[in-house]
Amino acid sequence: MRGQPPATVTELADRVGMSRPGTDVVVRGLVADGWVKVVEPDGSTVGRPARRYCFNAEAGHVLGVDVGVHKILVLLSDLEGHVVHSHRLPVEPSADPAARLDAVDTAITQCLKAAKMRPTQIWAVTVGVTGPVDSTGRTTLFTPLPGWAGVSPAEHLAARFTCPILVENDCKLAAVAERWQGAAQDADDIVYVLAGIRTGAGLIIDGTLRRGFGGAAGEIGALKAVRWDSAPEHIENCPGIPSSIHADDRAAWVFTEARAGNRDASTAIRRYVKDLAVGTAALVLTLDPQVVVLGGGFSRSADLILDPLARELGRLCLRVPEIRASSLGADSVALGALRVALDHLDSQLFTDGMPAPLTR
Amino acid sequence: MRGQPPATVTELADRVGMSRPGTDVVVRGLVADGWVKVVEPDGSTVGRPARRYCFNAEAGHVLGVDVGVHKILVLLSDLEGHVVHSHRLPVEPSADPAARLDAVDTAITQCLKAAKMRPTQIWAVTVGVTGPVDSTGRTTLFTPLPGWAGVSPAEHLAARFTCPILVENDCKLAAVAERWQGAAQDADDIVYVLAGIRTGAGLIIDGTLRRGFGGAAGEIGALKAVRWDSAPEHIENCPGIPSSIHADDRAAWVFTEARAGNRDASTAIRRYVKDLAVGTAALVLTLDPQVVVLGGGFSRSADLILDPLARELGRLCLRVPEIRASSLGADSVALGALRVALDHLDSQLFTDGMPAPLTR
């Protein structure tokens, strides 16, 4: 019934191939448990209309938390994945773990407060962080966040939530989001490339997010030969950027200038794309995906990147996949976090089972 | 019952959780269809021993064909994958498609003749070829075999076989073989690296061979930046190789000399491994596998390659997987071809179904 419009018992019986009386018994049980709610007739029909039922998406909620370099973003959704509240807080790139976790706590508090909910009403939380996430939920191998390598966001949040708390890499979550609601909803084999001040990747193969044996899949950027580590420097160090421009706005200045005909800016972008293409080609040649989705801050300037990137990949690869720009922007990590939390609930429900909403 | 020792009806009933009489009916049906055979008591037991049953592996057979640069290898196996006959023919690297297909035909004829079987008794054939295999079963994107890009091995063999004929890339088949019977039987996430005069890769993720959207997964070697294309030249062009050594034996000379203390040979191998490691690191960083299996001709000298390769990967990667040498040698492609043919039969049996052996 989830994801479907309200339906009568007769319609449900047809849909699942059970008898009408049998379906009626099951539906009444689901209503009693809180999984399904009754949709009362709106009175517009003549005669006595049949009662309709729909999935009770408000039975439970999940949180998706993006712990970024510059921001904390918390999304709260129902069991259908509809976002009912969000809260965003800026955070300094140089913030230490305590300050960053404080911001996470505050953003979650604000989000729950706005939704008038208690932590016990949250069924699952997924936290997105930068760097590969190991089996303990930490980013011990690598993280650009100061002092963050030893931090366990799951342990920190366990003081407040009794539900499952998952931790996942930001690029992997963004890839999940693009397949769920973004630019790659039709594809099962997806390479997501985060293009911005940092460059990263998330991989979906056969419809499933691939974490790798140790959680470090997609970390091609660590290989110097594919030139991702230095690629953004072409843009950051573009000649002519006025010293009055804030460090965070240098790239936007370069893209704007390139559109206005500034040769230095165009050259910087051309060199950036050439380097971005090498690492992207390594992913494409390894996996031969259907789609490459370009996300991250620079994807707002996809008009200046997509065509030259496709040309470079044509030169470097045996077969060039479709290349699309992200349609989700800066919310993609938190959205993917919601999806991973919901998927976790699904797998719990269909393996170990879980308590019904009204028996919790 | 497949892969299990002979069992009595009582044992089978226990195994599947059915009643003894019900199991008896099913087993008699399987015997009548030819899927199961009766194992007569050997008379060593006192009293009247219970009749035992086992899977009839000889009910059907499959062929695995390796169309290599230097050789054609045909393996014939029963439904358990036991090789009952094989036939190997040398072929010139320069052979044109007609000559190479002639050799394939001859090797298949010899193999069937030795087994006293007709083509109609073969249930599936898998052909391994070099280069990525597209959706038509051709290697249109790339092949090192002269004139082979437009050849369809499936169409060629369809003149002789009415069963399904599959075509697959050689490195992908070798990867399958290593997981089936070779060095990676315990792993689900495997990068297979073919190390020889050519360098290639096959990928198994979550226990499944990954072909890629267009069949070109694993073709990282096409990216110049990862240095696979030139890596073997360090060994081929090692200073001091006597002109009397045949081109195909130059690598063996270098490995032998390195073991004997020849500095030039050791240097050539060190440079080779440094280049091999870059492409391998690209695969490892992309997929984060549990195991890297080193196969191909050079894997016979794994004693000289594995340790320095692990050191280089330690330098280049975030997390270094286990590195193991292939245990299958030159038969791995044809063995993988058998496994793919058997898997195809399984998927047919469990989806569309297939005629019972005795009703064919």
From TrEMBL, chains A, B:
It comes from the Bacteria. Belongs to the ROK (NagC/XylR) family. This is ROK family protein.
